[in-house]
Amino acid sequence: MASSPLLMALLLALAAVASAQLSPTFYATSCPNALSTIKAAVQSAVANEKRMGASLLRLHFHDCFVQGCDGSVLLDDTSSFTGEKTAGPNQNSLRGFDVVDNIKKQVEAICNQTVSCADILAVAARDSVVALGGPTWTVKLGRRDSTTASLSQANSDIPSPASNLSALISSFSKKGLSTTDMVTLSGAHTIGQARCTVFRSRIYNETNIDASFASSVKSNCPSTGGDNNLSPLDLQTPTTFDNDYYNNLVNKKGLMHSDQQLFNGGSTDSQVSSYNSNPSKFASDFAVAIVKMGDISPLTGTQGQIRLNCRKTN
């Protein structure tokens, strides 16, 4: 029986969705100045506040671990919709939303409804690392934005700073990332800061911690109160993307429980030692691992939408 034109059109559309792939050249013709526009905005934001580089990198990570890399983390709550911003790992913690808003505004001005918020997060993460002296990589593009978010998945799937090694391995494995990827991506903690509330238990109660390091951090993180007081994840070079994070772990100076778990007599000790002694290997491995992370369940083809405002659906 002959197929109707409508059925054929539907099948072709479904095939296009199924075969759609992320591509580094996705905006080559539709918005050739997109990447340079994002880069300039990120450089300006990081120059204004070095910490913003870590914040933008973290947004990409927290986006990808919930529903895939779909921009869901950027959605504000509405009267009929609860987003991910109030989830435990995100509330009073995630930042940089205003920078993303500014980038989106600039990109919309040159290419209306062409570049997704999810892609902006992926590119801004790369440009932030580069701005702080880290490696570069080719970002795959073509993600589209979700029309939904998941508060429950944000609470369950983003690894906790209290996680032990097996829980960390499991969290990343659930997203298709290996234990090697997990140790590599954890190196993002070579930049940025953490709140007292997420590392207090470690510095006051754990024994696998350098005493002088614990003492120095306690000065800004009392045993009670001061929950939002900040300490650098890497005391040595907190605004430089390097391999000092791994040096800290080897010397029992990991700030959070989950950090020190990577070097605590377990299966990942050797990889930490390798990155500690070979910064170029860490840099090259990080570039590969974060591209892999950016491939987590993207919306492509006709899925999702290109949001005009990253905070709300169209």
TrEMBL record:
PROSITE patterns documented for this protein: PEROXIDASE_1, PEROXIDASE_2, PEROXIDASE_4
Organism this protein belongs to: Dendrobium nobile
Binding site for Ca(2+) 2: 190, 234, 237, 242
Keywords, ordered alphabetically: Calcium, Disulfide bond, Glycoprotein, Heme, Hydrogen peroxide, Iron, Metal-binding, Oxidoreductase, Peroxidase, Secreted, Signal
Residues that hold substrate according to the record: 159
GO CC entries: extracellular region
Pfam families: peroxidase (PF00141)
Name of the molecule in the record: Peroxidase
Phylogenetic classification of the source organism: Eukaryota, Viridiplantae, Streptophyta, Embryophyta, Tracheophyta
Disulfide bonds: 31-111, 64-69, 117-310, 196-221
Boundaries of every Plant heme peroxidase family profile domain copy: 21-314
Required cofactor(s): Ca(2+); heme b
Main location (coarse class): secreted
Active site feature: 62
Known function: Removal of H(2)O(2), oxidation of toxic reductants, biosynthesis and degradation of lignin, suberization, auxin catabolism, response to environmental stresses such as wounding, pathogen attack and oxidative stress.
Signal peptide start-end: 1-20
Residues annotated for heme b binding in this entry: 189
